Every structure is written in structure tokens, then in C-alpha cells.
Fold:
Amino acid sequence: MPDNEKSDSLGLTLAIGFLKLLDKNELREFDRFVHSPFFNNRSEVSSYFDVIKKYYPDFSHKEFTKENVFAELYPGTAFRDDVIRRLNSNLFKLGEEYGAYTSRRKNEFEYEKDLLNFYFTKNADKSFKKQLRNIEGFLESQEINDPEYFYNLSTLNEIERNQMLKYDPTYKRSGFEKQIVNHWKYLLSSMLRLYGFGEYEKFFFNKEYELKYADELQHIATSSNFMGSVAIEIYYRAFRLYAESNNDDDFHKLKQLIKDNTALFSKNELFHLYIHLFNYCNINKLKKDVDYSRVEFEISKEMIEKEMIINNGVIDPGWFRGIFFKIFNAGEIKFAEEYINKYRSAVSGNDSENVVNHALAQLAMHKKDYSKALEYLAKATYQHINDKWLIKNIYLKIFYETGSYEEFYYTVDSIRHLIKEEGSWNENLITPIRNFITHASKLFRIKQKETDIPVDEVRHEILTSKTIGRQWLLEKTDEIENASKS
Structure:
């Protein structure tokens, strides 16, 4: 019996937790599932479900107790906790069977493949051939060409060949050619895809991956002309973005390929391809003095127009914030305000209010309403260290603008401690942050007339070092120079 079933609270059991996951339509369907003799031959579980479903969706009514439920099921019988535990356990198992069944049923290929295998095991050759044509037609009609698509083709080739071997044991008519080609397409696309994500994590975080066959994979992809697959070319160019050399050509080709072939990928996979585009911009902003804000805005706008930032009706807090800042950094302030108003109610998770207040603080700072910005920042109480850094970055800029001496240097020290405590960042992230603090501190001292460091010297350091916030820093150097001339 699962430990969770020993809880004194009926509302904390695994079975009730499962029922809380279901929407109204799913609950009605599960009701039919529970009462179907094919799926459930325990009448006591059906009766138990009929009693507790009345408390859906919250299952928090004061009368929703083990004792009351037991009394309704077994009037006049002394309460037995082990009976309730057993009913909960059996209902939970039935719930998981329902979840697996509905998930499988929604996967059309798996359903058709299972039916094909059924005819194969029954030696129903005519039905097998008919079903084979059906499933071949289904796959041919699919626009999506991700790794799973090629894997499905290979799987179908395997089943078809096994059927042919019943009547062709010497392989005169059957063979492996089609399956080899389709499996290679699956292997190439899936490995290039995974290698791309591996390279991304190696660049930003203290993670290591064994990617020693990268050169071989790239050679196979290019020498085979990507095996005639646009999807493989897209995964190849996504992987190439993380090479040491300048890969602007791969970036622009990939960006156009994604735009022209969105139908080849599921919404979730397309989302990850856009991540690669953003990653390239992030990496190269640190490597060289290039402003990618307009490019990032264009990518963000495409994602919004294709409704890619919303998944199951909600937006991940990190992505809500990330897209906002890409819009904001491009100077599209009106668009940024419209974005917040349109999507703030869809932000999900514990940080939903934090990211909205964070975005509002940035807008208030842009309008030089520093008091309002500080009010919003006080409400953005992040827990994760990455998020805390982003907030401290804004605090630093506000205290610079307002000339708040003690607060500015307190924030500088706070950021340095944050970097020291963080163990997952590597130097590709830490160095640009440290340089930003150094540049901002020098400019603050010049502004406060505490040093006679030439502004041109600081400007040169900003332009030639890996740093974040380069645009803001250069704006501050211009302001100091203009003020000295007036």
C-alpha cells in the first residue's frame, strides 16, 4: 500500500490527488471508465467513486471524511480504515490505467500500429494489408517530420518486413533498405537535436556531455545532403550555432528555414528550435559588440503571432518575463505594455505575480518613475538565484540613476556574494556579470566626482570586454560626457 494512503486526511490520498487533475469532461469519461466491466470488475470501487465524486473538484467539504464516506458505503457497519485505504489504492490504480489508456488512444499512430500488430499475430493477411495501407496513408499525410516521425516509419518497416518473411523466408522480395534509410534519418535528427542542447548547457552551465562524435554526425549530414530532409538540415544548423567560429550564416539560414517550415514540427518542438535562435543571440552578445535586440524582437513577435508562448492555456513565468524583456530591449515600449496587459492573467506558477511586477518595474524605470519601480520590485520576491540576479540588476541601475550612494554599493556587494554562492554558473556567465559591475561602479564614481578616470577609457573597456548591459552602460558614458560639456 502506498505510504500516501496512510494519511488521516482523505483529501491527501493519491486517488483524490488524481481526481483533482481531471477537468469536468475527463471526470465524466472516467465515470464511464470506472463503471465499465471491461476495465473494472470491482463493484465496490465503482460505488466508492460514486460517493466521493460528489465532492469534486475541491474535495474539501467538512463532511468529506473517511468515516462519513465509509458510513455511506456500509451503513450500520463499524468503520475500518483498511477498507478505505484499499478502495483508495484500487481507485488510484484504475485512474492510472485510465490516464495511460486515454494518452495512448490520442496517439493515432500508436493506435493504428497496435491494430496492425493484432492482425499480424492473428495471421489475418487481408486485414493486415488493408491496415498497412491505412497506416502508410496516415504517415504520408503527416506534415510533422521530427525524429519521432522517422522512428515511426522505421517501426512500420520492421512490422511490414516481418509479415513478408512469413512467405519470403529467403529475403528475395523483402529487405532492409527502407528501414535503414528511415532509421538513419531518425538517428541523425535525434542525435543532432540532443547534441545541440548539450552544447547549449555546456556553454552556460557547469555541465559536461560526451559529444565526441559531433564531427562524424556533421559529416554524415552534409555528405548525404541531409538525406533529403529539411528537418535534418534544421537540426544540423541548430547544432552548428554553438561552434567556436562565427556562424551568422547558419543562424540566418536556420531562422529562415524555421519560418518557412513551421508545419514540420510540433508546437513543443518548434518552441525548442526558437530557443536555439535566442541562445545564439545570447552567446554572441557576450562575445562581440553586436546588438541583437531587433532580431530577438522579431523572433519574439513570431512566437507570439504563432501562439507559441501559451501552452495549455498558460504561460511559463520565465518565458513571460523573457519575451517581455526582448520586446522592451528593442525599444518597443507600447508593444511591451500591450503584451503585459494581454498575457499577465495567463502566467502560471508560484512566480506569476513576481514576473509581472518585475516587468512593471522595468517599465516604470524606463519612464524614470523610480519610486514606482521600487514599489514593484519590492513585490517581486524571487527565490531562485538566477531570478534574484535579474532583480538586483534593476536595483543597481535605479540606485545609479538616483545617486543613492549606500544603496548602490550595497547592491554591488550583494551581487558579488550572489556570484560567489552560485555553483552552477560557469565563467561564460560570471565574467560578463563581473565586468558589468566593474564598469557600472567606475561610471558611478565618475558621476559622483570621486575619480578622474577618463570616460573614454571606460567606454573602451565596455566595448572590448565581455559584458552584459552594454547598451545601458554606453548610454551612461554618453550622459557623463554630455554633462561635462554643458
User: Anything to note?
Assistant: The longest helix spans residues 177-204. The CA atoms of residues 462 and 470 lie 7 Å apart. Confidence is low (pLDDT under 50) at residues 1-7. The two ends are 79 Å apart (CA to CA).
